[in-house]
C-alpha cells in the first residue's frame, strides 16, 4: 500500500468510525476494498461520508463507484444532478460547485 493510500485509509477510518455502529475491523476491510477498486465498497464509503456531512469526499467516492457501473451510485448521482439542474435545494445534496 502506498503512502497516499495509507493516508486515505486513515482518514476514511477516522471519519466513518467516528459516527458508526460497525466494528473498526469491518470499516478497515471496507476501506481497503474501496481503495482496491471495489464499487460496492466505494458506495458504502460514499454513503457514510455523506451521512457525516462530508459531501465533497462523498461525491468523489460515489463517482468512483459509478464509473464502474454500480447502479446505486449511478442513481444517487443522477438524483443529485436532477435536483441541482432544477434548482431544488436539499439538505443532503451536493453543492453546485
DSSP, total strands: 0
Strand content: under 5%
Helix content: over 70%
Question: Radius of gyration, Cα only, in angstroms?
Answer: 14 Å
Runs with pLDDT <50, length 5+?
90-97
- Reading the helices and strands in chain order gives HHHHH
Molecular shape? globular
Termini separation comes to 32 Å
The structural domain count equals 1
Largest beta sheet, briefly?
none
Structural class label: mainly alpha
How much is the average pLDDT? Answer: 78
Quaternary structure of the protein: single chain
| DSSP summary: helix tally | 5
Describe the structure.
The chain is mostly helical and 97 residues long. It has one domain (3-85). The chain has helices at residues 3-18, 24-35, 39-51, 55-67, 71-85. Helix 3 runs antiparallel to helix 4. The N and C termini lie far apart (32 Å). Residues 90-97 have low confidence and may be disordered.
Question: Keyphrases for this structure?
Answer:
mainly alpha; 0% strand; 5 helices
